[in-house]
Amino acid sequence: MQHGPCSYTFILPEVDHCRPSKAYQVTNTLQRDSPPEAGHDPSQSKQGQAQGERPSWQQKKLETLESAMENNTQWLQKLENFIQENVRSGVEEIKRSTVHTQTAAMLEMGTNLLSQSAEQTRKLTDVETQVLNQTSRLEIQLLEYSLFTNRLEKHILLQTQEISRLSDKNSFLEQRLLALEARYGKELQGLQSEKQQLQDLLERQSRLVTQLQGELGSSTLNSTTLQKQQAVLTDTVQQLLAKVTQCNEISDAPKKKSLTFRDCADVLRSGVKESGVYHIHLYNTTQDVKVFCDMKTRGGGWTVVQHRRNGSVDFHRGWNDYKTGFGQPPGEHWLGNDIIHKLTSSQDYSLHIQLTDRDGNEAFSHYDHFHIDGEANNYSLHVKGFGGTAGRTSSLAHTGSQFSTKDRDNDRCTCKCAQLASGGWWFEACGPSNLNGIYYPSSSNVVRYNGIKWYYWKGPNLMATMTTMMVRPANF
User: Exposed/middle/buried for 53, CB within 10 Å: 0-12, 13-18, 19+?
Assistant: First the structure.
């Protein structure tokens, strides 16, 4: 029998050969409903006995077969119903089992999928963490590269600016070099011209010397007459000296007392109003000094310690010359560092510097307090209280600057300013001033570093026609 996907085979018993035992217990409902055996039916036995005369055995056999067939048909019908019921329940059970199996399989597959999904999620999380870490490192490296790039760009920009600045400076220096070459070319031509003029002058002087030698020979012939005249003059001088001695003896004491001055301020106080050369007596010394007194400038009473006006005196001298002084007042001269020290150490003095350029313009620098130390401290400068018209800022070196000459270098520069700038001065580190530089004629247009200089009035070259340094008591 075929039912759905299942096939069933049933083996039925033969009626004639199967005889159930009396003790047989029917446990199956299908078997209980099966048709009884033909030979053992009691009703049939009794019916046979009553109708002995009825049909023959073939007829009985046929009836028995018909009855058995009917019973078998009913039994088959019940069997079919039973099979259908059992098949239906079995199919439902199989379906339930199949669904359960499929559900279990699906659950197992779901569990496996969840496990695999969790594993994949964990792996993805690890990968994501690694990617994030790598990304963070890359971001940090990118930031570092960015910062480095910024620094490099700034450095390149600075280098570019520096190169541009150096290029501009180089261009400026090239232009200045060309200007200097042109200027020094003109100066060289001027020097060559001066050299030619000096050679011409030397030739004229040589001729003049020859002429003088000839005149000297002629003068020798007249020496006897001159000797006689000299003897007469000598007698006259002796007579005059005798008269002067007599006059000095008459008023010696009061006159000596009245002529003893500490400085030009004392000379002015004594009633002298004219500028000129006077003798002063340094305080606490036995030394008398001849000085030039300016009685006109700013009330007078000024003792001149330095004066330049025509370049007739060489100021490029050594230490000892500047120590003791040189030149003669009222002409070009330096009073002497020892004298200036002794004079300004006796009391508080002020310093006045008068300047005149080649165009006749005048200016001055005034210092309320001024003095210099002795030779042991290299005549160190001390000034304060600046004022005046020769620049808004003082061109004189700062307090503490030491005096330097060409043979005694006391400045703060390794270049030896006294040799470079010439003269003796308080150079400090070459500084903005030097009134003892070389005196160049006012007709020269060439700026020279070793000339007279008062920077904050006229720049690196004063082209002065006159300079005067003078001192006076601060309380005058």
Answer: exposed
Residue 427 near residue 411, CB atoms below 8 Å? yes
Query: Is pTM, for the whole model, over 0.70?
Result: no
Cα atoms in the Cβ-side hemisphere of radius 13 Å centred on 154: 5
Q: For position 39, what pLDDT does the model report?
A: 47
- Are the beta carbons of 293 and 304 closer than 8 angstroms? yes
Closest to 323 in 3D by CA, of 382, 376, 375: 375
CATH of 259-473, one of 1.10.3810.10, 3.90.215.10, 3.20.20.240, 3.30.365.10: 3.90.215.10
Q: Which residues of the chain have pLDDT under 70?
A: 1-55, 212-259, 443-447, 462-464
Q: Token digits for 469?
A: 């340094």
Q: Where, residue-wise, is CATH 3.90.215.10 in the chain?
A: 259-473
Please list, in sequence order, all residues whose beta carbon lies within 8 angstroms of the beta carbon of residue 167, skipping any fewer than 6 positions away: none
Question: What does the alpha-carbon distance between residue 5 and residue 12 come to, in Å, rounded to a whole number?
Answer: 23
